[in-house]
Amino acid sequence: MEQLQIEDHFIRNDREAGIALLADQLAIKFAERASKHDIEGSFPFDNFTDLRESGYLKLTVPKKYGGDELSLYEMLLAQERIARGDGSTALAVGWHVALILSLRYTHRWSDQLFARFSEEVVNDGAIINHFASEMATGSPTRGGKPQTTAVKVDKGWNISGHKTFSTLSPIVEHFTVSAGIEGNDETGEFFVRKGPGVRVVETWNTLGMRATGSHDVILENVFVPDDEVISLSLTEKQQHTKDDGGGTLLHIPACYLGIAYAARKFAVDFARNYKPNSLPGPIAELPRIQQQIGEMEADLITARTLLYAVADRWDRDPAERVALKPDLGLAKYIATNHAIRIVDKAMRIVGASSLSRNLPLERMYRDVRAGLHNPPMDDVVLQNLAKRAIQE
């Protein structure tokens, strides 16, 4: 891992340089532990201790509650760098910081609940995520109604259901869930505190992103008081909230570009230093290796340029965030697919030793493929772009 990249043209001022440096310093530690957590499939509690103690968890919390109030652009700078050390940790903490950033704009929670939770983040290092995925519905972005149910009881609601892909489940003490309202076709959202009736089942055993702790969460008559109900219908939700176009989901492509950057750096360093006895110098002098390095650079620069340009537009023009949705999706589509190509080329440069578990490339190769299964999916992105083109 490197320290702060002064030559990174996407760092525009001293504040952003400080954010990048903080993330770089954390990533150095995370890189040293990444292989262990990947092999074990264990959750990186040690990394989250460092994130908590460094103040990283409060970066997107509003200043009025004691946070740093990072913009989307600034959050991506940090997230990309965390992923250079460990993709699993970056993706996991990304859901936390991105959700808080989204809530600042959308006002999906009541002011009282958001203030209360923000103060818990600042004072106690509280962590949050939204658990929506279920086996029966698939990705919640596809519009399936949750099978988890909410039943009205005195002074609150009882929630029962089975959530999958629940990233951060080993460490969160608070999370939100979507649930169908018993007796009608509406869907509600509820703030849940881990306690009686909440059970984490350790099912996460995957090819890549093995240390995100994305286990199943089972809820059995979990009580949620009325003042911690976020919404009771889609109609109510639309009336009281703003749509941010899904901009904060850009933490996902930032993660995969961070992995790609780390793979690219490993391969370039390898090419500079590997000198087989059949050559007069390092393989970096070979035209075919330079061709592959050039292709990696082209993919990385293209993807990062689009990602940060779209994030900057999202920050500067809140009124146009919904209209920006196809471009936000395109940034994820380009970043994810280019990141996969970059890691693949890095492995071709390094050769057969890239398959060794003693090197980080094989883990990066597995981790980066997970981006294809994070929202928005490729087919949805392309459909949105097609619809905009047809309408124009």
Question: In terms of topology, how is this protein built?
Answer:
Blueprint: H1 14-40, H2 45-54, H3 72-85, H4 87-106, H5 111-124, E1 130-131, E2 149-153, E3 156-166, E4 174-181, E5 187-193, E6 198-201, E7 215-225, E8 229-231, H6 234-240, H7 251-273, H8 287-316, H9 325-350, H10 361-368, H11 378-391
Helix pairs in contact: 1-2, 1-3, 3-4, 3-7, 4-7, 7-8, 7-9, 7-10, 8-9, 9-10, 9-11
How would you portray this structure in words?
The longest helix has 30 residues, at 287-316. It contains 11 helices and 8 strands. Strands 1, 2, 3, 4, 5, 6, 7 and 8 form an 8-stranded mixed sheet that branches. It starts with 13 loop residues before the first helix and ends with a helix. The protein is of the alpha+beta class and 392 residues long. The chain has 3 domains: 14-124, Butyryl-Coa Dehydrogenase, subunit A, domain 1 (Orthogonal Bundle); 130-236, Butyryl-CoA Dehydrogenase, subunit A, domain 2; 247-391, Up-down Bundle (Butyryl-CoA Dehydrogenase, subunit A, domain 3).
